[in-house]
Amino acid sequence: MMTLLIIAAVAMLAYANGANDNFKGVATLFGSGTTGYGKALAWATVATFAGAVVGAALSGELLARFSGKGLVPESLTGEPIYAAAVALGAAATVLLATRLGLPVSTTHALVGAIAGAGLAAGHTIDGLTLATLFAAPLLVSPLLSLTATAVSSTLMRRVGCHFGLTGRECVCVGTPLEAEPSSVAAMQRSISVEVDDVERCRERWSDRIAALTLADTVDRLHYLSAGAVSFARGMNDAPKIAAPLLLVPLATRGNIAPAAIVLTAMAMAVGGIVSGRRVGETMSKKITPMTPGTGLAANLVTASIVLAASPLGLPVSTTHVSCGALFGLGVSSGQGRLAAITTILAAWITTLPLGAVCGGLVMFVLRDRAF
Fold it and tell me: Does 231 reside within a domain?
């Protein structure tokens, strides 16, 4: 019975995470008008699932860390009731935020639930571990992404202004109209490469072998960067969510970690598809206006930070990193919407203590039940 409860609790947490987090990687695609909500969500789902599968092989450190080892006594981390309390407490916290349309950190909710369930079980919490291994990366990463995005988007804007770039620039490879070759050799000699405005390229070039506009290039890179963010999120989040499954006694009979992460990824995908719209709208439309170019800058920063953190076992929050990048866009452009930003920051501040309260309450309830 307890094993089934833990599996259900992890599935609930994965669903909540997907609903709150899946759209974060592609928020700039939707917010900048590069694509619609449905296409952005589909791309996020595929990339997140792929990242989770890779995370099954590379993120063993995160699996161990989010089982509670090092933060609470090891004797507690092997108790199935504790595993269920952690997963259910974190899930309740994230589902509440999702209902309100607020992007919050599943990582913070998990850390809070780990601590709250541990305290409710009558154990002490290792404050030094909490501060150095959990709190520090979670606090530093959004500031890092904000700063890096503000700087990179400002530089991008200044470079564009300096060179007078409008997005309509086109690199054409082909034969200009004035070149009328009479032989293959002449045609080969007449083929050239030129940079011009897209309309002039169309008028002047009779036989384009290839043509690529600056706007098309930015859009393609934007898609790739959004996929990279979603991939990084899946690689970083799925092992953390699946960690309570390793506390099930069955898990000691074989290596079920990869299968647990893949099943977690499936539940995350369902959560994003069914319940991700509210948080998606908040991140895409309510924080700051954006363009495809600035959205690309934000995604590159987010993906770099999260991808670097996963192999090191650093529990950075994709939410904090991606939102920090969007805040950076608002700082850079001066168009950040302060009311939305302060509301999100308030939600971040309350996520960990709310997770602790929920984890503690669930622990109290489960200890009084016979499973």
Answer: yes
Can you point out the beta strands (E) in 143-204? 169-176, 192-197
CB 27 within 8 A of CB 283: yes
Which residue in the block uniquely carries the two structure tokens 């503000």?
A: 150
Answer whether 296's CB lies under 8 Å from 25's CB: no
Q: Identify the CA nearest to 40 among candidates 295, 267, 297.
A: 295
User: Do 182 and 260 sit in the same domain of this protein?
Assistant: no
Q: What is the pLDDT of residue 96?
A: 97
Q: Residue 104: phi, psi to the nearest 5?
A: -125, 175
In a domain, 286, yes or no: yes
Alpha-carbon distance of 69 to 60, in angstroms, equals: 13
Residue pair 30/276 in contact (Cβ under 8 Å)? The answer is no
pLDDT top residue among 127 and 361: 361
Same domain, 137 and 44: yes
114 and 172 inside one domain: no
pLDDT in tens, 184-241: 554 454 555 555 555 666 655 555 445 567 778 888 999 999 998 899 888 878 877 8
CA distances from 307 to 10, 233, 301, 323 (A): 24, 8, 10, 16
Distance CA 222, CA 230 (A): 12
The reply to whether 199 and 86 lie within a common domain is no
CA distance 85 to 32: 40
pLDDT in tens, 54-78: 876 665 555 555 555 666 767 777 7
Is residue 264 a contact partner of residue 242, using CB atoms and an 8 Å limit? yes
Query: Domain residues for 190?
Result: 167-215
Decide if 308 is inside a domain. yes
Do residues 363 and 123 lie in contact, with contact meaning Cβ atoms separated by under 8 Å?
A: no
Structure tokens at 329: 């866009």
For residues 241 and 120, membership in a common domain is answered with yes
Q: Could you tell me if 200 and 146 lie in one domain?
A: no
Alpha carbon distances (Å) from 194 to 128, 174, 204: 60, 9, 11
